[in-house]
């Protein structure tokens, strides 16, 4: 199913990054994709299910979360960080920061794959390059 992806900071992602990117707390805060309830129903997913997010730039597995904020149907949100980096425009325009602002068209499907830990995510993303 196709969606428009937007990214940005969240309070939880910001708090977890300060604690340490290699901690499970950070994966739970940044390795997620927020959906509205209607879109979760259409995809046949529930909170905590793994989903694969694919864009023209790559793909990543994250956990589905129901948003607590109002979000239009067809829009999803992934917090800024390494998981979002896998699917956003990698061009940094000499800023060393990927282009997080979109929205970017993505395709999302339920998967049995697990959300990668930081070490595995970095190996996949940068060793394959």
TrEMBL record:
It holds the Pfam family Molydop_binding. SUPFAM superfamilies: ADC-like (SSF50692). It comes from the Archaea. GO terms for molecular function: molybdopterin cofactor binding; oxidoreductase activity. Residues 3-101 form the Molybdopterin dinucleotide-binding domain. This is Molybdopterin dinucleotide-binding region. It comes from Methanothermococcus okinawensis (strain DSM 14208 / JCM 11175 / IH1).
């Amino acid at each position: 199913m196709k969606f428009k992806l937007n990214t940005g900071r969240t309070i939880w992602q910001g708090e977890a990054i300060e604690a340490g990117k290699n901690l499970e707390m950070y994966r739970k805060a940044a390795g997620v994709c927020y959906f509205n309830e209607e879109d979760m129903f259409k995809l046949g997913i529930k909170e905590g299910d793994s989903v694969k997010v694919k864009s023209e730039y790559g793909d990543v597995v994250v956990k589905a979360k129901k948003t607590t904020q109002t979000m239009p149907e067809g829009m999803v949100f992934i917090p800024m960080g390494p998981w979002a980096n896998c699917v956003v425009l990698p061009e940094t325009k000499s800023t060393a920061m990927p282009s997080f602002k979109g929205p970017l068209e993505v395709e999302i499907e339920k998967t049995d794959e697990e959300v990668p830990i930081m070490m595995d995510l970095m190996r996949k993303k940068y060793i394959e390059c």
